[in-house]
Every structure is written in structure tokens, then in C-alpha cells.
Amino acid sequence: MDLSASWVWENPTNVNTEHQNNSQGGMESLQTDSRFEDNLKHSEDEHYPEESLVQIPHSSPMTPVKIKRRMMRLQRRKARAAELVQQNKETENHTVSAAIERSKGFDTTIKGKYSIWRKEYENPNSDSTLKLMRDQIIMAKAYSNIAKSMNKTVLYEALVKHSRDSQLAIGDAHSDAELHTGALDWAKAMGHVLSMAKDQLYDCILVSRKLRAMLQSTENRANMQRKRSAFLTQLAAKTVPRPLHCLPLQLTADYYLQGYHKKGNVGKEKIEDPSLYHYAIFSDNVLATSVVVNSTAQNANEPEKHVFHIVTDKLNFEAMRMWFLTNPPSKATIDVQNIDDFKWLNSSYCSVLRQLESARLKEYYFKANHPSSLSAGSDNLKYRNPKYLSMLNHLRFYLPEVYPKLDKILFLDDDIVVQKDLTPLWSIDLKGMVIGSVETCKESFHRFDKYLNFSNPLISNNFSPDACGWAFGMNVFDLKEWKKRNITGIYHRWQDLNEDRTLWKLGTLPPGLITFYNLTYPLDRGWHVLGLGYDPALNLTEIDNAAVVHYNGNFKPWLNLAVSKYKSYWSKYVMFDNPYLQVCNLRK
């Protein structure tokens, strides 16, 4: 018996009124109640044995008290009936996925549902047909496997054929509007086949087991695809595109052919003047460095007071110098240096250089048999990026040695774009701190426990896991305070302790967080907006209003991987009409 909520008792107010005004109406109501009680007698005997013994004579007067009691009994019965119905629904095919329910509903009532699906299909904002067809394909795969195992060849071939037809009908569609015009007819035909399969093959436990197996298989494939995507993304991020490889070759050749190697530096008197605005850029990427310099100089109120200190490696020194000799930014001063000319930067002084000479680290990076397959190598591929081996990446920890006569300097990564005048940064009081940075922690994200190994007592005893992280890329350094606190010595100590890479993995941010722990002044977030190299969902208003935007991540703006809607912020500072860029086929 279906004890549904459709059993409705009359309003007690109406019953009382009828009893007072019309005794016959009251008796009819009483007879209705008696019939109701007879129908529920079996259920009441089971669940309310005490009440089932109470006999209400039909001739007894219907007093308000009795009416109230009867209504209370009916409410209890109604609540119990609803509870039983709910329990019945919850236990019915609980393990079967929603796909079964949707396909069964379509199968068993295909004619009645057809008009509904047609209305939804005609609605351009509805994707019900597409969802239905995808669910049908899932069920067809499950039933086809069962049919094959039971040697029901005809049914198996019909399911495979209709599944293939539905997949062709869906194609690359993402909404009902993109489906083939006959898609609903295919869905109807598939519904008939699934109805046949359900009649012949359906078994709740068997189907649910098959769906679980399909789900597990799909998850395994998805995990493999994620690993493949991570591997290929890291590989693409490490690869130098042909135009970027061509540019330094052309510049280096002309540097010697046209005699630029004989020219000295321009504006030597400004290079060590502490009253000017000094920037440090460490990079081997000529094009990226040119964008940083151009965007900073073009947005500066007084570009003649800005000095850019560029340090590159031996391979790109001539190309970097040639570019800025032939394309000097308006009024700004450029100083290009070769990191190999820093004779003090050697393995006896620098921890990273000393570690790079160790056999263990060489094996980690260069061993011939280290995993290159997708499954084995994707996890550690990020940390085998060549940038982690470059001293240009670690030179930021030696700023006072590189610029001994400067008091304050602004460090810029080569994957940033400047959109406003940065001179107000020099007037910010760091309140005794060594570095000014924009913090990146939001709620529980980007805190120290994300970067450091707090299972190691050296980390857990000296740092808080909830300490807020910050970002390199645009940082103000007080070099006087740096020297006073011996920051480079702190960096060396922790770098030596991490020789076995147990405190943190490779990179410069973890040792930066440690070295400048409790020595960081938080800058306003508007100075530095990050994430353009990995997050396609950033707030465009925040990007437009930012002083500096940072393409941190793998999707650099000079790569084909770049997020297209962010690329214009970078490309507008590229000199695409430059002959060297045109020769190397560097275009928008």
C-alpha cells in the first residue's frame, strides 16, 4: 500500500462548523473518517497497538475534544506514512548512479517524456538533451559489457551501434544549441535500445558493479592525462622557442661585426649614485628584459633618474649589451654586467655553487637514467628546471656584494610588466625591515607550511607554519639594513643545512622566506599582482590597476602557452617593428 502524502484530512474548523450546523454533514465526515481508519487499521495495529484497541462508537457525539484527539491521531499516522515512504525511497537502488535513474526514466516513459525533452531542446539555454545523451552513452557502455559477457550478440551490437551514433551526434558540442538537428531522434532511438537492455539485463547489483568499474577506469585515465599534461607543460616551459633562440644569435653576431664591443658604458657617473632610483634585473632573456626596462621607463615620471642594473650570463652578455646599445630606453641609464666577471662569486664562498659541484646534486640533475617517462618523471620535473641551477636565480641573495655603494634597490624579475611610476616605493619606510614585499597568503593558502618541510625539527622549531608567504618579483631592499643584519650569512647557513634537500625543495622562494623571516615589510597588494602565468581567472580590474603584473608560472607571455587574455599587457611593450625581431620572426 502506498502511504503517500496525498491523504488529506478535512480542516478541523470546517468539521466543527458542519457538526454544529448540519448533523448529517457531521455523520458523513465521521463515516469518511471510519473508512480512513479501516484502510489504515493494519498499519496502526503494527505501529500503534495501543490506539488500535480504542473503539470509537459511530453514534457518539462529535465533541471538540474528540475531534482534536482524532486530528492528532491522523497527524501521527500521516507523519508515520511519510516516514515510511521516505525510507522506501532511500533504500531503493541506493548504489545505482544518477545515470541509471535518468536513463530508466527516459526508457520507461519515452512517449510521455518526448514532448518535455522537445520543449527543453527548443530552449537555447537548456542542455538537457546533451546531458541525456551523455548519460545514455554511459549506460550503453555498461549494458554492452554485460551483454557481451552473457553472449547476447544482437543486443550487444545494437548498443555499440547506437552508442557510436550518439557520440557522432554529440561531436564537440558543449550545449544543446551545438547538437545536430536530429540529436533528439537519436536519443529517442537509444532510449528504446536501453529499454530493451534493461528488460533483458538489468540487475541492480550487477549494473552498479559495472558502473563502479567504469568510474575507476575513468579516474585512472584522468590521472594519467593530468600527469601527461603536467609533464608536457613543464617541458614546454623549459624549451626556448626558435625566435627567442635566434634573437641573441643575431645580436651577438652584429655586436662584433659592427664594432659595438669596443664601446664603453654610457652614464658611468649615474651607476653608483645612491640618490637615483636603481633597479636590479638578473636574466638571460633579452626580449623579456627589454619589456621590463621599456615598461618601467615609459611609465616613470622622471626616466632620467632611473638606472637599470642588468646582470646576465656569459652566453648572452654580448646580445644583451647590443640590444640596449641599439635600443636605449628614453633617458634612462643601462648597465649590463656579466656574472662570470664576479670573481668573488665562487664555490668557496657561495653555498649553491659548492653544492652544484657535489656528486649527489649532479646525479639528481644529470644522471643518465633519471626517469623521463610521464608517470615516473612528472612529479620532480618541475624541480629539474634549468633555472634552479642558474646562479642568476640565486644572485638576489648577494645584492650588497654586487652593488656595494647603493643604499636601496628595487629587484625586478624578467617576467613582470610595470604599469605605473614606481618611484614612490623608494620613499616607503620599511620600519627596520630588510625587504618590502606583497604578501600572497589568503586564508590558509601560501603560508610557510606550503614551502617548507615542517616534519623536520630544524624548520618546526624555528618557524611558524602559519606565517604568511610573500613573492619575489618586485621587492624593495634596504641594503644598509641588509649589511647590518648579515642577511647573506643567514642565507648561507640555511643553504648549507639543506644540502640534502630535506628542508625544502629547490628554488629561491623557500630560502628567501627563511632568510627574511620576521624581516619583511608588507607592501600594499596594488603594487604587485601575481598569477598571470598560471591563473586564467584573475580579476581584470585588479590587473589594470596594478603597478606591476607578474607572469609567475609556466605560461610565460613569450611562449605559446601564454594565457591569451593576459598577453596584451606584455606585448604592448615589445618593439615588434625592430629589425632584429622581424628577422627572427617575432610577431604579435
Automatic annotation (TrEMBL):
SUPFAM superfamilies referenced in this protein's UniProt entry, alphabetically: Nucleotide-diphospho-sugar transferases (SSF53448)
Subcellular localization, as worded in the UniProt entry: Golgi apparatus membrane
Keywords, in A-Z order: Cell wall biogenesis/degradation, Glycosyltransferase, Golgi apparatus, Transferase
Membrane topology: Single-pass type II membrane protein
GO BP: any one term: cell wall organization
Keyword Plastid: no
Pathway in which this enzyme or protein is active: Glycan metabolism; pectin biosynthesis
Region (Disordered): 11-30
Enzyme Commission number: 2.4.1.-
Enzyme superclass (EC): transferase
Record-level GO cellular component terms: Golgi membrane
The keyword Glycosyltransferase is assigned to this record: yes
Primary location class: Golgi
Molecular function terms from GO: polygalacturonate 4-alpha-galacturonosyltransferase activity
InterPro entries per UniProt: GAUT, Glyco_trans_8, Nucleotide-diphossugar_trans
Assigned protein family: Belongs to the glycosyltransferase 8 family.
Name of the featured protein: Hexosyltransferase
Biological source species: Medicago truncatula
